[in-house]
Write a structure and sequence with these properties.
64 residues, alpha+beta, Macrophage Migration Inhibitory Factor, two-stranded parallel ribbon, two-stranded antiparallel ribbon, 2 helices, 28% strand, elongated
Length: 64
Amino acid sequence: MPMIHVEMFAGRTEEQKRDLVRELTDTFVRTAGGTPESVQIVLTDVDKGNWASAGTLFSDKSKG
């Protein structure tokens, strides 16, 4: 059973998440095979204060 993990900044609407999981499922099945029922997806919303790049929190980057 394929498992897709998506980590992204918090703030997307439920409708955006529905569209995303539908597109990810369709693309996986089309390119890798299987059935939509076999594709599992976990969405993790991450606060910008818990994500960093180049030694700087994204919450600090957005203040500039």
